[in-house]
Amino acid sequence: MAIAGRLDTNAAVDFGKAIEETLVDGVTAFTLDMADCAYVASSGLRVILNAQKKMNSLQGTMVLKNVVSDVMEVFEMTGFSDILTFE
After folding, report:
1. What is the pTM (predicted TM-score) of this model?
2. pLDDT of the residue at 66
């Protein structure tokens, strides 16, 4: 799955719904391509954290790829860089 633009409060609602539809029983790996995501708000962080929790419950893996430096800085400042897997 890829995120483009801003993962703000409005986009997080739709993104959360897409995640719920995607991460169903039987899914063992989930990759989130963030190459075109320039901004992540706290609501977006919450959706990403919930996706990680869902993958943990499915005993699967989740990887975030191509995270731009500004967004990576947000992950680092919030401690998410210690929780999530990045490539």
Report:
1. 0.94
2. 98
